[in-house]
Amino acid sequence: MPGSEPATAEAQLGPYVERSRADWAALAASTPMTITDATLSRLRGVHDPTSLNEVEDVYLPLTRLLSTYVHHTGELHRASNDFLGLSVRQTPFVIGVAGSVAVGKSTTARVLRELLAAWPEHPRVALVTTDGFLHPNAELQRRGLLQRKGFPESYDRRALLRFVMDVKSGRPRVEAPVYNHLSYDIVPDERVVVDSPDIMIIEGLNVLQPARQRADGSSGLTVSDFFDFSVYVDAAPDEIKDWYVRRFLRLRETAFRDPRSYFTRYAALDEQQARATASHLWDTINGPNLMANILPTRGRATAILRKADDHRVKWVRIRKI
């Protein structure tokens, strides 16, 4: 991993630039910190230890890089308009955030939204998660997919693709379904409206999935075809499983005790039972989904944030342009 030593010729010729945490943090330069402790507490997911130091070292430099991408994409838009003789409005800059269950991608997406919205050049930043595009539980039950929730086939991929295409086309007031984690289901007749943001963040397990191949060998469009930048939050699978189990234990003491929760049956488990249940859920659902569908998409990301066993990002890899 590059640190203070010069990169090897082989590394310089590779498709990625990799930086240690210390070297990456130095790239933030004088970028102002716009998140407080109170704000970060609101943005963090369950059992996510992301600190202000992590935000300063990792997310401020990433925000600075993203803002550079947004700026130069705007310049390219203006040059393209001039060349083609058009006067169309620039469409939103779309960022995809991917990674496993329990790896911290939701916190990453929320922190990025907060930081990016503080830049005067692009104050309107929207965030939509792909959970809203899961099929309702009744439909998953009908298809025999309720135990494969989170796998690619459990999503309404056409609706998700149509949503991202509409946003990227510049269509105003695009609607997305709403998912409730307490009820573990889609909320009927409720929508979130995205109205011409400067930046749109799409967060989800499978947002970097390639297009499916048709029977005739051809393939269509996929969500990631409309991303201007993408981030994959990465960690060793065994570490992610440990974080998942810890999060399950925390939820057993909090959200699972809410009588409206889909998972109230887990609230009465003792610690040993809860650990065994969480481990079983990981080994039969989330772990296989990670290995078969999510991890293979890591190489398609523009940026990879690799976490250590303490949840802190230890290095960052950026695809070269």
General description of the model:
The protein has a single domain, classed as Rossmann fold (3-Layer(aba) Sandwich). The chain is 38% helix and 18% strand. The protein has helices at 9-13, 21-25, 37-43, 52-84, 105-117, 137-143, 157-168, 237-253, 271-294; strands at residues 16-20, 93-99, 125-129, 174-180, 185-194, 199-203, 229-234, 303-307, 313-319. By secondary structure, the protein is α/β, with parallel strands linked by helices. Helix 4 packs across helix 5 (105-117) and helix 8 (237-253) crosses helix 9 (271-294). The strands form two sheets. A seven-stranded mixed β-sheet has the order 1-9-8-7-2-6-3. Strands 4-5 form a two-stranded antiparallel ribbon.
Write the layout of secondary structure elements.
Blueprint lengths: L8 H5 L2 E5 H5 L11 H7 L8 H33 L8 E7 L5 H13 L7 E5 L7 H7 L13 H12 L5 E7 L4 E10 L4 E5 L25 E6 L2 H17 L17 H24 L8 E5 L5 E7 L2
Parallel strand pairs: 2-6, 2-7, 3-6, 7-8
Antiparallel strand pairs: 1-9, 4-5, 8-9
Helix pairs in contact: 4-5, 8-9
Taking all residues together, what is the mean pLDDT?
92
Multimer state: single chain
Radius of gyration (Å): 20 Å
Measured as a percent range, the helix fraction is 25-40%
Looking at this protein, list some descriptive labels.
globular, Rossmann fold, two-stranded antiparallel ribbon, disordered N terminus, 321 residues, alpha/beta
Q: Would you summarize the structure shown here?
A:
The chain is of the alpha/beta class.
